[in-house]
Structures are given as structure tokens and as C-alpha cells.
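Friendly challenge for the regulars: who can give me the C-alpha cells for this chain first? No prize, just bragging rights.
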Amino acid sequence: MKINVQANPCFKEVDRSKKRYIVMKGSAGSGKSVDTAQNYILRLMRDKGRNLVAMRKSDITNRDSTFAELTGSLYKMFGDKADAYWKINRSPLMLTCRHNGNQIIFRGMNDDRQREKLKSITFPKGKLTDVWLEEATEFTQADLEIIDDRLRGELPPDQFYQIRMTFNPVNKNHWIKKVFFDIPDPNVLTHHSTYLGNRFIDNAYRERMERRKIVDPEGYQIYGLGEWGEIGGLILHNWEVREVSQNLNDYDDVAIGQDFGFNHADAILLVGIKDEDIYIIDEIYEHEKETAEIIPIAIQHGIPAKKIMWCDSAEPDRIKEWNKAGYRARGVDKGGSKGSVNAQIDWLKGSVGKDHTIKRKIYVAPHCVNTIKELQQWKWKKDERTGEYLDDPVPVMDDAMAALRYAIEGWRKASRWLM
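First reply, four minutes later:
Bragging rights claimed.
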């Protein structure tokens, strides 16, 4: 069997450890999730009776994160023979090793129903031995206790139970730091990695990180160096992740925003408005793709061609391409002036209702993982001399935020011809 494994030496200790808790903090792009996916594939192929539950706080986000990471690793490792070694099931999400019957299933912990579902997990062969918590900072300590309690019972002498957590260390006050990093425990292996130690990172990504080091030193500490921090000066606080209707008829109106990109993301958001609240229904977030490659993705996502697509007006040729494809693409002021950007932000944060005493809410569908990540770190610039935050957004990791600002432009300006 020929296997292509992209191994970074910094993960050797992690992959060999049999400790119960493997807690991996690191920067974006450090390779910790890729290493985790590869390690689980090899472990489950080698050892009979092992089964994995890959988890995100919201079950639906597994499809675009843990499942995508594991299946992507399968095809990188085995090429066109991946299906010969693993059965890949997409509904429900499940991977089964054809050699020994070991399985990988996918779960969430977003509500009581999902928690009860976790308690009743069984496998045709073997037991639940491994749990992967991706974006572990999404989980509560109570979630972990429920998960931990599922790993019990006698195992053969050569087997062991293990929970692996992977995350960016956004908040220095998070319970994960207090429980696993601040208190020494022989059952715990903590690990730190950064993109600088990832041999497989492309140059464009390194350049983006170097730019962030300059324009957002505080964010770079977390997402570039993987150090514990706490992001202050967040721009939007009036948002939450929850299931939102995918039926466009449930909204008062629907619009699309697109921020063009190539090296940085080309971000498209499908956004609805209902009773003055905003609903982010779907996202497209692609790197290094031309417009001709993104249009079929938009069609696959069901992005409606009859609704206005508000785009960066600085790219007229790309707007023409979308119009030729049948979309109602329009240019919107990119916000070159600080006043325009801030006016859009003020509208997103604004008050609604007859007496304007109720704050507008922004609801984000759980599968819009890139939008959620940007909302979690979109912040004001900080004056390093005074320590005060300025009325100027940090221009890093803000592609979905630009798409959001564009999408609401028609509603903000109350253009009658929009409807």
C-alpha cells in the first residue's frame, strides 16, 4: 500500500502519545487539523476495534470542516484508491474502513437532542475509543464532561481512550487554558504549533500572515503565533449562530454581497432581512479561483440570479462576467472613505422598531464557518501608543465582512427599485 503522508516533525510527539487528553493550540495554518485527520485515518486502519467521533459544537459544520478534512486527507494519502480502502458515506456523514470495519462518525453538542444522541452511540465493531473536538473553544466544560464519560469500559491491553482538541487560543480566560494548561496533569499532553513550522504552507498564505503582523499585531499573536490572547475592540456584538431558514420566501427580501478576491478570499454571502433583522443564509468562500470557476459554485449553492448581487465597484470587468452569466450584479461603493464603511457598520449595529429601542440582530447559519470566524475577529484598529481603539477596521480577514457590508447596501439606502 502506497501512502502519501504530509508529516510535520512538530507533531511526532502528539501522534505517538497514548495520553487521554491531547490539547493542541496553535495558529491558523499550523497544520494541526491536517495532522489530526491523517493520524486518525492511519490509526483506525492499523488497530482493530477503534472508532472515532469527530465533533463540532454545531453538527452541521462538520460537513465543511472535520468531514472535509478527513476525506481530503484520504484522497491526498491514497489518491484514486481512497475508495478502495474507505467507504465514504455523505448522508449521513460516515467513513468506514473496508479492511476492519472501524468507523468515523460526526456529531454536535448544540442542544439536548444532540447530547442524548451522543450517549446512545454504538458501533458494529469495537467501541468508541477516540473523540476529535475541532474548534474546541466552541465547547463548554460541561460538554467535555458528557463526552469524556462516554469513553469508559475495559479495553484490550494495547488499546487506549483518547480525546484530541484542536483550536486557536483566542481567549486567555477560556476554561481550556485553566483546566489543561494551568494545572499539570500526567494524563494531558499540551501542544503548541504555528504556521511557521508547517512545511506545506503556500507562499501566498505566509504573505497574508506577514501582512497581518504589521496591520494587526494583536490578532497576529493569536492567529499567527498561536499565543493565548483576548481580542478586544470587536466591531459587531449583536450576532449569534443559529439555524436559519433556507427558504427564501420566509424573508421580506433577499440580497447577495460579493467581495472579489483571488489570493485573499472571494466571499459571497446570501443575506435575508426579516422584521429589520439580518439573516446570513449561505456563504461561498474561495481562494485562487477565477470568476468563471466561481459562477458554477454559485449555481450549485442556489444563489438566486434574480436578486441584486452587490459587488465591489472597483472590479467592473468581473461584474460584467456575472451579468453575462445571468446574475443582477451591481457595483457598490467599496467604502474607500472611512465614513462609508462606518455608515455600513453603524447600520448593522443600529436600532430598529418604531421607537428605535431594539438593537438589530444578525443571525448566522451554522454552516457559514468562514463568516463566523471573521465575525469573531473583525475589530477596530488599536493605537499602540495610547492603547485606545480607533474608528477604523483592521483590513485583515475581512472578506466576508465586506460582502456583508455590500449585501445590506440597498436596504441601508432604502432604494425603492431594489424590490
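The two ends are 59 Å apart (CA to CA). The domain at 239-418 is CATH 3.30.420.280 (Nucleotidyltransferase; domain 5). Your move, everyone else.
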